[in-house]
Protein backbone atom coordinates (compact mmCIF):
# COMPACT_ATOMS: atom_id res chain seq x y z
CA UNK A 1 0.00 0.00 0.00
CA UNK A 2 1.23 3.50 -0.89
CA UNK A 3 -0.30 6.41 1.01
CA UNK A 4 -0.15 9.51 -1.19
CA UNK A 5 0.91 12.44 1.00
CA UNK A 6 1.63 15.35 -1.36
CA UNK A 7 1.81 15.87 -5.11
CA UNK A 8 5.23 17.15 -6.08
CA UNK A 9 5.68 19.67 -8.90
CA UNK A 10 7.42 18.49 -12.03
CA UNK A 11 11.10 19.19 -12.53
CA UNK A 12 10.18 21.79 -15.17
CA UNK A 13 7.94 23.59 -12.66
CA UNK A 14 10.59 23.59 -9.96
CA UNK A 15 13.28 24.89 -12.34
CA UNK A 16 10.93 27.64 -13.55
CA UNK A 17 10.45 28.74 -9.91
CA UNK A 18 14.20 29.23 -9.42
CA UNK A 19 16.04 29.26 -12.75
CA UNK A 20 19.78 29.63 -13.20
CA UNK A 21 20.72 33.27 -13.96
CA UNK A 22 22.63 33.71 -17.22
CA UNK A 23 25.81 34.74 -15.41
CA UNK A 24 25.84 31.58 -13.30
CA UNK A 25 24.91 29.42 -16.29
CA UNK A 26 28.03 30.71 -18.04
CA UNK A 27 30.14 29.87 -14.98
CA UNK A 28 28.74 26.34 -14.93
CA UNK A 29 29.36 25.82 -18.66
CA UNK A 30 33.02 26.69 -18.14
CA UNK A 31 33.23 24.41 -15.12
CA UNK A 32 31.67 21.59 -17.16
CA UNK A 33 34.28 22.13 -19.86
CA UNK A 34 37.13 21.96 -17.36
CA UNK A 35 35.83 18.69 -15.91
CA UNK A 36 35.13 16.99 -19.24
CA UNK A 37 38.53 18.04 -20.58
CA UNK A 38 40.16 16.09 -17.74
CA UNK A 39 38.13 12.97 -18.52
CA UNK A 40 38.85 13.16 -22.26
CA UNK A 41 42.57 13.82 -21.73
CA UNK A 42 42.50 17.27 -23.31
CA UNK A 43 43.70 18.59 -19.95
CA UNK A 44 46.49 17.26 -17.73
CA UNK A 45 44.79 18.60 -14.61
CA UNK A 46 43.29 16.29 -12.00
CA UNK A 47 39.74 16.29 -10.71
CA UNK A 48 39.33 16.52 -6.95
CA UNK A 49 35.74 15.89 -5.85
CA UNK A 50 35.90 16.96 -2.22
CA UNK A 51 33.48 17.81 0.55
CA UNK A 52 31.27 16.41 3.29
CA UNK A 53 29.87 12.90 3.26
CA UNK A 54 26.40 14.44 3.12
CA UNK A 55 25.17 18.03 3.00
CA UNK A 56 22.83 18.21 5.97
CA UNK A 57 22.78 21.98 6.61
CA UNK A 58 23.22 24.80 4.05
CA UNK A 59 25.21 27.30 6.15
CA UNK A 60 28.33 25.20 6.90
CA UNK A 61 28.25 23.68 3.40
CA UNK A 62 28.32 27.16 1.88
CA UNK A 63 31.15 28.23 4.17
CA UNK A 64 33.09 25.13 3.16
CA UNK A 65 32.46 25.75 -0.54
CA UNK A 66 33.53 29.39 -0.24
CA UNK A 67 36.82 28.21 1.29
CA UNK A 68 37.18 25.72 -1.55
CA UNK A 69 36.57 28.47 -4.09
CA UNK A 70 39.39 30.55 -2.57
CA UNK A 71 41.65 27.50 -2.63
CA UNK A 72 40.72 26.81 -6.25
CA UNK A 73 42.12 30.22 -7.19
CA UNK A 74 45.53 29.03 -5.95
CA UNK A 75 45.58 25.51 -7.42
CA UNK A 76 43.46 25.97 -10.54
CA UNK A 77 46.44 25.62 -12.86
CA UNK A 78 46.84 22.00 -11.73
CA UNK A 79 43.49 20.88 -10.32
CA UNK A 80 39.76 21.14 -10.99
CA UNK A 81 38.14 21.28 -7.56
CA UNK A 82 34.51 20.15 -7.47
CA UNK A 83 32.68 20.46 -4.14
CA UNK A 84 30.73 17.44 -2.95
CA UNK A 85 27.21 18.62 -2.20
CA UNK A 86 25.66 15.20 -1.71
CA UNK A 87 21.98 15.57 -0.93
CA UNK A 88 20.78 11.95 -0.78
CA UNK A 89 22.33 9.46 1.61
CA UNK A 90 22.20 5.72 0.87
CA UNK A 91 21.50 3.59 3.92
CA UNK A 92 22.74 0.02 4.14
CA UNK A 93 19.62 -1.11 5.99
CA UNK A 94 17.26 1.38 4.37
CA UNK A 95 16.46 3.37 7.52
CA UNK A 96 17.83 6.54 9.11
CA UNK A 97 18.65 9.99 7.78
CA UNK A 98 18.40 9.85 3.99
CA UNK A 99 19.73 13.28 3.10
CA UNK A 100 18.58 16.81 2.41
CA UNK A 101 16.47 15.81 -0.59
CA UNK A 102 13.90 14.02 1.53
CA UNK A 103 14.73 15.50 4.95
CA UNK A 104 15.98 19.11 4.72
CA UNK A 105 16.11 19.35 8.50
CA UNK A 106 17.67 16.21 10.01
CA UNK A 107 15.88 16.90 13.30
CA UNK A 108 12.41 16.90 11.71
CA UNK A 109 10.31 14.59 9.55
CA UNK A 110 10.56 14.18 5.79
CA UNK A 111 9.53 17.10 3.57
CA UNK A 112 10.57 16.33 0.00
CA UNK A 113 9.15 19.48 -1.61
CA UNK A 114 11.01 21.69 0.83
CA UNK A 115 14.09 19.52 0.31
CA UNK A 116 14.04 20.00 -3.47
CA UNK A 117 13.68 23.77 -3.12
CA UNK A 118 16.40 23.92 -0.47
CA UNK A 119 18.82 21.99 -2.70
CA UNK A 120 18.27 24.23 -5.73
CA UNK A 121 18.85 27.32 -3.62
CA UNK A 122 21.95 25.77 -2.05
CA UNK A 123 23.49 24.78 -5.38
CA UNK A 124 22.75 28.19 -6.94
CA UNK A 125 24.21 30.04 -3.96
CA UNK A 126 27.29 27.82 -4.00
CA UNK A 127 28.04 28.76 -7.62
CA UNK A 128 27.40 32.45 -6.95
CA UNK A 129 29.58 32.65 -3.84
CA UNK A 130 32.46 30.35 -4.84
CA UNK A 131 32.49 30.15 -8.63
CA UNK A 132 32.32 26.35 -8.28
CA UNK A 133 29.54 24.07 -9.48
CA UNK A 134 29.05 20.88 -7.52
CA UNK A 135 28.98 17.10 -7.60
CA UNK A 136 26.12 15.04 -6.25
CA UNK A 137 25.31 11.34 -6.09
CA UNK A 138 22.42 10.23 -8.28
CA UNK A 139 20.92 7.94 -5.68
CA UNK A 140 17.41 8.24 -7.14
CA UNK A 141 17.52 8.62 -10.96
CA UNK A 142 14.20 10.50 -11.21
CA UNK A 143 15.49 13.18 -8.83
CA UNK A 144 18.31 14.17 -11.18
CA UNK A 145 15.95 16.21 -13.37
CA UNK A 146 15.42 18.71 -10.54
CA UNK A 147 19.11 19.68 -10.47
CA UNK A 148 20.42 18.73 -13.91
CA UNK A 149 21.16 22.37 -14.78
CA UNK A 150 23.27 22.92 -11.65
CA UNK A 151 25.74 20.02 -11.39
CA UNK A 152 29.12 19.48 -13.05
CA UNK A 153 29.79 15.93 -11.85
CA UNK A 154 27.45 13.02 -11.07
CA UNK A 155 28.38 9.97 -9.01
CA UNK A 156 26.73 6.54 -9.15
CA UNK A 157 27.20 4.69 -5.88
CA UNK A 158 28.36 1.11 -5.34
CA UNK A 159 24.85 -0.05 -4.46
CA UNK A 160 23.45 1.56 -7.62
CA UNK A 161 26.04 0.74 -10.26
CA UNK A 162 24.36 -2.55 -11.24
CA UNK A 163 20.91 -0.95 -11.41
CA UNK A 164 19.46 -0.66 -14.91
CA UNK A 165 17.77 2.71 -14.40
CA UNK A 166 20.96 4.33 -13.11
CA UNK A 167 22.82 3.09 -16.17
CA UNK A 168 20.10 4.29 -18.55
CA UNK A 169 19.77 7.77 -17.05
CA UNK A 170 23.57 8.11 -17.02
CA UNK A 171 23.50 7.57 -20.79
CA UNK A 172 21.59 10.83 -21.22
CA UNK A 173 23.79 13.01 -19.00
CA UNK A 174 26.25 15.24 -20.85
CA UNK A 175 28.67 15.50 -17.93
CA UNK A 176 31.28 13.29 -16.28
CA UNK A 177 29.46 10.46 -14.51
CA UNK A 178 31.63 8.47 -12.13
CA UNK A 179 30.36 4.91 -11.71
CA UNK A 180 31.68 3.16 -8.63
CA UNK A 181 32.60 -0.49 -8.61
CA UNK A 182 29.82 -2.58 -7.04
CA UNK A 183 30.07 -3.65 -3.42
CA UNK A 184 31.48 -6.98 -4.60
CA UNK A 185 34.36 -5.16 -6.31
CA UNK A 186 33.71 -6.88 -9.65
CA UNK A 187 35.65 -5.14 -12.42
CA UNK A 188 33.65 -6.86 -15.23
CA UNK A 189 30.40 -5.57 -13.70
CA UNK A 190 31.91 -2.08 -13.46
CA UNK A 191 32.99 -2.17 -17.11
CA UNK A 192 29.52 -3.38 -18.16
CA UNK A 193 27.98 -0.44 -16.29
CA UNK A 194 30.25 2.01 -18.09
CA UNK A 195 29.42 0.36 -21.43
CA UNK A 196 25.68 0.74 -20.77
CA UNK A 197 26.09 4.38 -19.74
CA UNK A 198 28.14 5.16 -22.85
CA UNK A 199 25.59 3.50 -25.16
CA UNK A 200 22.48 5.02 -26.77
CA UNK A 201 19.33 3.94 -24.94
CA UNK A 202 15.55 4.16 -25.22
CA UNK A 203 13.49 3.96 -22.01
CA UNK A 204 10.70 5.54 -19.91
CA UNK A 205 11.70 8.61 -17.92
CA UNK A 206 9.39 11.16 -16.26
CA UNK A 207 6.30 9.91 -18.13
CA UNK A 208 8.02 10.01 -21.52
CA UNK A 209 9.67 7.49 -23.77
CA UNK A 210 13.09 9.08 -24.20
CA UNK A 211 16.10 8.35 -26.36
CA UNK A 212 19.67 9.14 -25.35
CA UNK A 213 22.86 9.32 -27.36
CA UNK A 214 25.14 7.71 -24.77
CA UNK A 215 27.52 9.48 -22.41
CA UNK A 216 31.17 9.29 -23.49
CA UNK A 217 32.24 10.85 -20.17
CA UNK A 218 31.02 7.94 -18.01
CA UNK A 219 34.02 6.43 -16.20
CA UNK A 220 35.20 4.18 -13.37
CA UNK A 221 35.48 5.04 -9.69
CA UNK A 222 37.34 2.59 -7.44
CA UNK A 223 35.99 2.72 -3.88
CA UNK A 224 37.11 -0.63 -2.46
CA UNK A 225 34.95 -3.69 -1.96
CA UNK A 226 33.31 -5.66 0.85
CA UNK A 227 33.89 -9.41 1.14
CA UNK A 228 31.36 -12.04 2.20
CA UNK A 229 32.25 -11.48 5.86
CA UNK A 230 31.81 -7.71 5.81
CA UNK A 231 35.51 -6.89 5.64
CA UNK A 232 36.65 -3.84 3.67
CA UNK A 233 39.12 -4.70 0.89
CA UNK A 234 40.89 -1.73 -0.78
CA UNK A 235 41.26 -1.57 -4.56
CA UNK A 236 43.18 1.68 -5.11
CA UNK A 237 46.48 -0.19 -5.47
CA UNK A 238 48.48 -0.34 -8.67
CA UNK A 239 47.36 -3.85 -9.63
CA UNK A 240 43.62 -3.15 -9.60
CA UNK A 241 43.95 0.16 -11.42
CA UNK A 242 45.93 -1.53 -14.18
CA UNK A 243 43.34 -4.32 -14.35
CA UNK A 244 40.74 -1.65 -15.07
CA UNK A 245 43.05 -0.14 -17.71
CA UNK A 246 43.39 -3.58 -19.32
CA UNK A 247 39.60 -4.02 -19.28
CA UNK A 248 39.16 -0.71 -21.07
CA UNK A 249 41.72 -1.80 -23.66
CA UNK A 250 40.04 -5.19 -24.10
CA UNK A 251 36.84 -3.42 -25.12
CA UNK A 252 38.52 -2.79 -28.47
CA UNK A 253 37.59 0.87 -28.79
CA UNK A 254 33.96 0.39 -27.79
CA UNK A 255 34.58 2.41 -24.61
CA UNK A 256 35.51 6.07 -24.81
CA UNK A 257 37.85 8.11 -22.63
CA UNK A 258 39.35 5.51 -20.27
CA UNK A 259 39.47 7.09 -16.82
CA UNK A 260 39.64 6.09 -13.17
CA UNK A 261 38.85 8.22 -10.14
CA UNK A 262 40.11 6.93 -6.79
CA UNK A 263 37.64 7.22 -3.91
CA UNK A 264 39.99 7.61 -0.97
CA UNK A 265 37.36 6.77 1.65
CA UNK A 266 34.67 4.08 2.00
CA UNK A 267 36.08 0.56 1.70
CA UNK A 268 39.45 1.84 0.49
CA UNK A 269 40.04 3.44 3.89
CA UNK A 270 37.67 1.30 5.94
CA UNK A 271 35.99 4.65 6.69
CA UNK A 272 39.07 5.63 8.72
CA UNK A 273 39.00 9.15 7.43
CA UNK A 274 42.63 10.07 8.13
CA UNK A 275 43.77 7.16 5.97
CA UNK A 276 42.59 9.19 2.98
CA UNK A 277 45.82 11.21 3.17
CA UNK A 278 48.01 8.11 2.93
CA UNK A 279 45.90 6.62 0.13
CA UNK A 280 46.12 9.76 -1.99
CA UNK A 281 49.89 9.89 -1.46
CA UNK A 282 50.32 6.27 -2.59
CA UNK A 283 48.29 6.88 -5.73
CA UNK A 284 50.33 9.99 -6.54
CA UNK A 285 53.53 7.93 -6.18
CA UNK A 286 52.15 5.32 -8.59
CA UNK A 287 51.31 8.05 -11.10
CA UNK A 288 54.95 9.08 -11.08
CA UNK A 289 56.10 5.45 -11.36
CA UNK A 290 54.09 4.38 -14.43
CA UNK A 291 53.02 6.53 -17.38
CA UNK A 292 50.04 4.25 -18.13
CA UNK A 293 48.84 4.53 -14.52
CA UNK A 294 49.28 8.28 -14.72
CA UNK A 295 47.30 8.46 -17.94
CA UNK A 296 44.23 6.64 -16.63
CA UNK A 297 44.01 7.97 -13.04
CA UNK A 298 42.26 11.32 -13.44
CA UNK A 299 41.53 12.32 -9.86
CA UNK A 300 40.25 11.66 -6.36
CA UNK A 301 37.13 11.66 -4.25
CA UNK A 302 37.83 12.91 -0.72
CA UNK A 303 35.41 13.24 2.19
CA UNK A 304 36.12 16.45 4.07
CA UNK A 305 34.31 19.11 6.10
CA UNK A 306 35.17 22.09 8.28
CA UNK A 307 35.56 20.03 11.48
CA UNK A 308 37.21 16.60 11.51
CA UNK A 309 35.28 13.46 12.38
CA UNK A 310 31.54 13.00 12.75
CA UNK A 311 28.69 13.37 15.23
CA UNK A 312 25.37 11.60 15.71
CA UNK A 313 23.36 14.85 15.83
CA UNK A 314 23.86 18.29 14.33
CA UNK A 315 25.47 20.02 17.29
CA UNK A 316 29.00 20.94 16.12
CA UNK A 317 28.90 23.45 13.26
CA UNK A 318 30.55 22.07 10.13
CA UNK A 319 30.95 18.48 11.29
CA UNK A 320 29.47 15.49 9.44
CA UNK A 321 26.40 13.75 10.85
CA UNK A 322 27.08 10.68 8.69
CA UNK A 323 30.55 9.26 7.88
CA UNK A 324 33.65 10.87 9.44
CA UNK A 325 35.53 13.39 7.32
CA UNK A 326 38.91 15.10 7.22
CA UNK A 327 38.98 18.56 8.78
CA UNK A 328 39.67 21.69 6.75
CA UNK A 329 43.33 22.13 7.72
CA UNK A 330 44.27 18.59 6.65
CA UNK A 331 42.21 18.96 3.48
CA UNK A 332 43.91 22.20 2.51
CA UNK A 333 47.37 20.68 3.01
CA UNK A 334 46.39 17.59 1.02
CA UNK A 335 45.06 19.60 -1.90
CA UNK A 336 48.22 21.70 -2.03
CA UNK A 337 50.23 18.48 -2.01
CA UNK A 338 48.20 16.97 -4.87
CA UNK A 339 48.67 20.15 -6.90
CA UNK A 340 52.43 20.07 -6.30
CA UNK A 341 52.72 16.44 -7.46
CA UNK A 342 50.43 16.49 -10.52
- The CATH superfamily turns out to be Aldolase class I
Strand content: 15-25%
Could you spell the SSE succession in H and E letters? Answer: HHEHEHEEHEHEEEEEHEHHEH
CA-atom Rg in angstroms = 19 Å
Distance between the termini: 54 Å
Domain count, please report it. Answer: 1
By oligomeric state, this entry counts as single chain
Mean pLDDT: 96
Helix percent band: 25-40%
Output the strand order for the largest sheet: 2-1-12-11-8-5-4-3
Q: How many strands in all?
A: 12
What structural class do you assign from the helix and strand content? alpha/beta
User: What is the global morphology?
Assistant: globular
3D structure, described in words:
The protein is α/β, with parallel strands linked by helices. The chain has one domain: Aldolase class I (TIM Barrel, Alpha-Beta Barrel). It is 38% helix and 15% strand. The chain contains 10 helices and 12 strands. The protein has helices at residues 11-17, 22-40, 58-75, 112-130, 164-170, 187-198, 238-250, 275-289, 291-296, 328-341, and strands at residues 46-51, 79-83, 134-137, 151-156, 177-180, 202-205, 208-211, 218-222, 225-226, 232-233, 260-263, 297-303. The chain has an 8-stranded parallel sheet. The chain has a two-stranded antiparallel ribbon with strand order 6-7. A two-stranded antiparallel ribbon has the order 9-10. Strand 9 and strand 10 (232-233) form a beta hairpin. The radius of gyration is 19 Å and the shape is globular. The model has no long low-confidence stretch (mean pLDDT 96).
